[in-house]
Amino acid sequence: MNEVLPNNRWPRRANPKVMQVFEANACFGWVLAVMITLPSQAAFGQTRPAFKESFSSQVKFDTRELAKHFVQDQVRIFQSPVRDVAQKPANARFLIPFAIAGALIPADRHIQPTPSTGTVNAARQISNVGLIGTAATVGTLYIYGVKKHNEHAHEAGFLGTESFVNSFVMKELVNVISGRLRPQEGNGHGDFFVNHSFDSSFPSGHAMLTWSMATVLADEYPSTKSRIFWYAVGSTVAATRVVGQKHFTSDVIVGSAAGYLIGRYVFHARHQTMKHLENE
Q1: What pLDDT digit, counting tens, does each position of 222-237 carry?
Q2: What is the pLDDT of residues 33-51, one digit of tens each?
Q3: Per-residue b or e along 54-67, where b marks 16 or more CB atoms closer than 10 Å to that residue's CB
């Protein structure tokens, strides 16, 4: 069994307190800018649900709905590669990123970048801001939607949360099964079935979680600028996880593709049915 490299092999990090302040301020500015610039128009077919009497009752209702859909979501997500392709062969195009990632696994260690310590630290901070900023946007939209009875913001926040939860569970399960070492662990080859923990390398959690939420937001606010912005956020997070020496290229390709497909599934499965939920 390969041993994890000692700490002195890792790039030296900047002052943790300074980085925490930077991340907090960057995420706050992110959410503020996004909330100001989000378009007011709904996505095509946007529903108009009624709201519960109080904030707490709405949150409880939404939590029950999230729990009710959870098992169904997981089953359909794991079945989708076979079911969707069988129903519509053209859907095989969504499997292309996974095939590319599989082909890249043997070459991962050879194409892994070797940036400077400063670049590594900067990349890690950027990826953290991208993930946290996207999650904060989803949370802010949900709270704003419930507080102000804004059905569009509520749906965007609710579906973004549902997508995050589904992605997180899948990511943790696959991490434990794959057990892949990170680029700076063991011999640096990214061996599989070694580190069976929730923090293994394959797939990238940052990429999967960010893409799952970003896809929902891009579909909820389907202007060209919105889609470009959110897809750019997902791509930036994925790329900086590789530059930051946290993942191999195949890790982020699989994470990004899986996150995109989960977000797409959640949006299309729930978008047209949200109007019925509040009246039950």
Answers
A1: 999 999 999 999 999 9
A2: 554 445 444 444 444 456 7
A3: eeeebeeebeebee
Mean pLDDT (whole number) for 40-69: 71
92 belongs to a structural domain: yes
Q: How far apart are CA 265 and CA 158, in angstroms?
A: 14
Is residue 24 assigned to a domain? no
Give φ, ψ of 15 to 5 degrees.
-55, 120
Number of structural domains found in the chain: 1
Domain with 129, as residue range(s), is 72-277
- Could you please report the per-residue DSSP string of 32-84? HHHHHHS-SSPPTT-------SSHHHHHHHHHHHHHHHHHHHHHHHHHHHHHH
Confirm if 69 and 266 have CB atoms less than 8 A apart.
no
Rounded distance, CA 68 to CA 276, Å?
14
Other beta carbons less than 10 A from residue 37's beta carbon? 11
Residue 2 falls inside a structural domain: no
Q: State the average pLDDT over residues 138-155.
A: 93
In the structure encoding, which two tokens stand for residue 143, read together?
Answer: 């709270």
Residue 167: CA atoms inside 13 Å, Cβ hemisphere, count? 34
